[in-house]
């Protein structure tokens, strides 16, 4: 069994759908996916929990590939507010939902090994290749951050993919120490900085497990549709996600996931039709 951890609100549905399609289309092993969510509408009206209807649809999609797969919703609102309410990093570079992974040791009955993935990732090969990496002597495995490893420290990580050894993490108090930093010190990259600074022992993996710049490499396992800084023909930042299908094709020139994205478009239409039916009958 492969235990996944995703985090977000109702607006991550497209990312979760595309990502889970790409995983289940290439992986035969059972996928057990937890989605941490919370209501933070006090900060932004759009910061509400992922909807039950969205979870049910995602669960049905993964079960259509393998009946033992599942997607479950974990509402961590109370835990979040106890730990991070009004902390200096609630309005960090990203949304407060990036902080939810730091609560994994406080949620009951979580497995001892977890693969955390940012929502803007697609899986190009069997995810078992990554999940089965031996991290028994490490708190986690990660890939270097493409810019941070140049400008911050050579071993600075990108926390978009974290293969977590929860048993070791509880022993070393990695997440507890990270939360303390989040609560007391304003940091540029918040959760990522907190994890990096609190780490005692990590395993650095090849870039193919979190490819952050090229979208057509043949050895890629995890493709990360994160921000890119481009210099030529003029300096600019690109930030196209996998569900921006037209831009993925026309700008990023990426066609590795065409079958997955066609399935996503079809399933998204199906979900919208179900929503309309509910509204009409409701």
Structure in words:
With 282 residues, the protein is α/β, with parallel strands linked by helices. It has a single domain, classed as Alpha-Beta Complex (Spore Coat Polysaccharide Biosynthesis Protein SpsA, Chain A), CATH 3.90.550. The protein contains ten helices and eleven strands. Strands 3-2-1-4-7-6-8 form a seven-stranded mixed sheet. Strands 5-9 form a two-stranded antiparallel ribbon. A two-stranded antiparallel ribbon has the order 10-11. A hairpin with a 5-residue loop joins strand 10 and strand 11. Helix 7 crosses helix 8. The mean pLDDT is 94.
Helix/strand layout:
Elements: E1 2-7, H1 13-24, E2 31-37, H2 52-65, E3 70-75, H3 77-84, E4 113-117, E5 121-123, H4 128-131, E6 140-144, H5 148-151, E7 157-165, H6 166-172, H7 174-184, H8 190-198, E8 202-204, E9 222-224, E10 228-230, E11 236-238, H9 245-250, H10 258-281
Parallel strand pairs: 1-2, 1-4, 2-3, 6-8
Antiparallel strand pairs: 4-7, 5-9, 6-7, 10-11
Shape: globular
Looking at the overall shape, the CATH architecture is Alpha-Beta Complex
Q: If helices are DSSP runs of H or I spanning 4 or more residues, what is the number of helices?
A: 10
By CATH, the superfamily comes out as Spore Coat Polysaccharide Biosynthesis Protein SpsA, Chain A
> Proportion of β residues?
15-25%
Number of domains: 1
Radius of gyration: 18 Å
Distance between the termini: 38 Å
Which class of secondary structure composition applies to the elements?
Answer: alpha/beta
Strand order of the largest sheet: 3-2-1-4-7-6-8
Percentage of helical residues?
25-40%
How would a textbook summarize the main sheet? Answer: 7 strands, mixed
Segments where pLDDT lies below 50 for 5+ residues?
none
Q: Quote the CATH topology.
A: Spore Coat Polysaccharide Biosynthesis Protein SpsA, Chain A
* Overall pLDDT: 94
- Name the helix and strand elements from N-terminus to C-terminus, one letter apiece: EHEHEHEEHEHEHHHEEEEHH
- Per DSSP E runs of 2 or more residues, the count of β-strands stands at 11
What is the C-level CATH assignment?
Alpha Beta
């Amino acid at each position: 069994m492969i235990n996944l951890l995703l985090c977000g609100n109702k607006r991550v549905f497209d990312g979760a759908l595309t990502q889970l399609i790409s995983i289940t289309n290439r992986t035969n092993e059972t996928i057990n996916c937890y989605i941490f969510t919370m209501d933070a509408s006090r900060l932004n009206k759009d910061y509400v929990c992922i909807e039950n209807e969205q979870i049910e649809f995602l669960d049905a999609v993964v079960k259509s590939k393998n009946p033992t797969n599942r997607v479950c919703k974990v509402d961590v609102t109370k835990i979040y507010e106890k730990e991070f309410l009004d902390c200096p990093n609630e309005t960090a570079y990203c949304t407060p939902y990036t902080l939810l992974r730091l609560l994994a040791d406080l949620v009951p009955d979580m497995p001892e090994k977890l693969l955390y993935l940012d929502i803007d990732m697609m899986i190009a090969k069997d995810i078992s290749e990554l999940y089965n990496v031996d991290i028994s002597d490490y708190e986690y495995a990660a890939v270097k951050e493409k810019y941070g490893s140049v400008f911050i420290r050579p071993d600075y990580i990108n926390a978009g993919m974290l293969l977590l050894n929860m048993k070791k993490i509880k022993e070393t108090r990695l997440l507890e120490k990270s939360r303390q930093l989040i609560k007391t010190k304003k940091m540029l990259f918040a959760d990522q900085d907190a994890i990096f600074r609190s780490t005692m022992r990590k395993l650095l993996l090849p870039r193919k497990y979190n490819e952050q710049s090229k979208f057509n490499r043949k050895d890629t396992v995890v493709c990360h549709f994160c921000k890119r800084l481009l210099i030529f023909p003029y300096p600019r930042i690109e930030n196209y996600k996998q569900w921006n299908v037209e831009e993925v094709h026309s700008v990023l020139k990426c066609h590795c996931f065409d079958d997955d994205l066609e399935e996503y478009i079809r399933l998204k239409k199906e979900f919208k039709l179900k929503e309309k039916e509910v509204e009409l009958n409701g």
